[in-house]
């Protein structure tokens, strides 16, 4: 079977974790980085060549898979949607030491890192990150571009809106809703719904201020 090359967009810290996850899952012939930092071009990072910038990306085809690896939720999602509109394959990548139920759904460009868990009935949109040792329980619904940081815990039936960032070690009790474009701080415990465009901190989490709405891109 001919495996595609995986072109990872972004050679920063998150990109390196994506690289190791993509290598570990065994779905690609090899992985290459594309990055806008010209000083990296032609170098190797963890054995993967930084081929050039995004202009070095070959045309769409069965031998090409492209995976945006940017920490910024809005930019990562915008890249994913643009690539899909051009006909590129944007894969879903799951580390072999993660558990994703066969009855869960993951959108294009979503990555699930080592020791993470996604349970039955969960639906994750495009370009989500389920980071190291995070857990998404049964029947959760995550919009596009959501980032569950390391150690996040989502109980059953939680809904999270597009481009929301759940900080490291935060948790959300069952059936709660966290709106789009929110930031939930590290270690926060969400025990009631959080409206869109909110910064929520503390135990229990409270909204401390509104965030300016931001377009994807």
UniProtKB/TrEMBL annotation:
Substrate binds at residue 71. Residues 7-78 form the PglD N-terminal domain. It comes from the Bacteria. The record marks 139 as: Increases basicity of active site His. Coiled coil: none annotated. Acetyl-CoA binds at residues 147, 168. The active site is at 138 (proton acceptor). InterPro entries: AcTrfase_PglD-like (IPR020019), PglD_N (IPR041561), Trans_hexapeptide_repeat (IPR050179), Trimer_LpxA-like_sf (IPR011004). It holds the Pfam family PglD_N. SUPFAM superfamilies: Trimeric LpxA-like enzymes. NCBIfam families: NeuD_NnaD. Belongs to the transferase hexapeptide repeat family. This is Putative pilin glycosylation protein PglB. It comes from Megalodesulfovibrio gigas (strain ATCC 19364 / DSM 1382 / NCIMB 9332 / VKM B-1759).
């Amino acid at each position: 079977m001919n495996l595609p090359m995986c072109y990872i967009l972004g050679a920063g810290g998150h990109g390196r974790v994506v690289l190791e996850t993509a290598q570990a899952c065994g779905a690609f012939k090899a992985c290459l980085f594309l990055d806008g930092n010209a000083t990296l071009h032609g170098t190797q990072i963890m054995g993967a060549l930084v081929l050039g910038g995004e202009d070095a990306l070959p045309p769409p085809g069965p031998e090409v898979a492209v995976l945006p690896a940017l920490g910024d939720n809005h930019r990562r999602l915008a890249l994913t949607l643009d690539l899909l509109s051009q006909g590129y394959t944007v894969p879903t990548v799951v580390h072999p030491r993660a558990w994703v139920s066969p009855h869960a759904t993951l959108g294009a460009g979503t990555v699930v890192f080592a020791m993470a868990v996604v349970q039955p009935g969960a639906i994750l949109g495009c370009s989500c990150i389920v980071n190291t040792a995070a857990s998404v329980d049964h029947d959760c619904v995550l919009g596009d571009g959501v980032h569950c940081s390391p150690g996040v815990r989502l109980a059953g039936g939680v809904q999270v809106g597009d481009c929301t960032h759940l900080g490291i070690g935060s948790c959300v009790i069952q059936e709660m809703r966290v709106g789009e474009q929110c930031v939930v701080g590290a270690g926060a415990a969400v025990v009631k719904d959080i409206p869109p465009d909110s910064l929520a901190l503390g135990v229990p989490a409270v909204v401390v201020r509104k965030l300016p709405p931001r377009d994807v891109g």
